[in-house]
Design goal:
alpha/beta; Rossmann fold; 7-stranded mixed sheet; 20% strand
């Protein structure tokens, strides 16, 4: 945990809470050991959805559909979410969850690998939420930037890896070293890309927020 536990619990205790069906879905994800966005990350998303008022959202990494449904609950009227997932079992679960709360008209689920789907997309988005395989973030980044409207937001979750990203690669387990290296490279790319202005927040498991700069005329 990045944030000190008592502080996290206190801040989450101030949250106004979510719909009963969202809380039920969170409990289901915990029981099935499916990771979903943490409450503090949800609070951040609520803020940016209210502040940015996007008309279009792209999510890379649907899982069981929790974060897409979460955003659909707080996004402005008329906004549409496009979300990408390649895991067949999770696709079926996500579609069932979308259907149960009648959000199929607001959420389009694209089935397949994001590395193949992203280059095929042509319509830009106001907000992109990155929550897929962490080792692929850097690979997806050029297409994500291409698809982000000027002034649009890129929000990337789980970028500090429980604090491991701070450590030497030799201090993390061998099986995690590739992800560790790629995440460091991703954070460096976000902070040094001339098209972006990025802040990295030690919230939840680490969240980066990038805005695509509007070029001066």
């Amino acid at each position: 945990m990045i944030a000190e536990e008592r502080m996290r619990v206190f801040l989450n205790s101030l949250d106004s809470g979510d719909s009963d069906w969202l809380e039920d879905l969170r409990l289901y994800s915990e029981a099935e050991n499916v990771p979903v966005i943490r409450r503090e990350t949800g609070s951040l998303l609520k803020f940016f959805l209210a502040e940015k008022r996007p008309s279009s959202i792209l999510e890379v990494g649907t899982a069981i559909g929790f974060s897409a449904l979460f955003m659909s609950e707080y996004m402005p009227e008329g906004c549409h979410i496009t979300t990408i997932e390649k895991n067949g079992k999770r696709i079926a679960c996500a579609r069932r969850n979308f259907r149960q709360v009648e959000r199929e008209g607001q959420i389009t689920l694209l089935e397949g690998d994001a590395s193949a789907i992203l280059p095929e997309l042509t319509t830009p988005f106001d907000l992109i939420f990155m929550d897929a395989a962490k080792g692929q973030y850097l690979h997806f980044l050029p297409q994500v930037i291409r698809l982000l409207n000027p002034g649009g937001l890129l929000i990337s979750d789980n970028v500090l890896q429980g604090g491991d990203v701070l450590e030497s690669r030799y201090a993390v387990t061998r099986r995690d070293r590739t992800i560790h290296t790629r995440m460091r490279e991703y954070l460096y790319a976000l902070k040094h890309d001339p098209a972006l202005e990025t802040v990295i927040l030690p919230l939840g498991d680490g969240v980066s927020v990038s805005v695509r700069k509007v070029l001066d005329r």
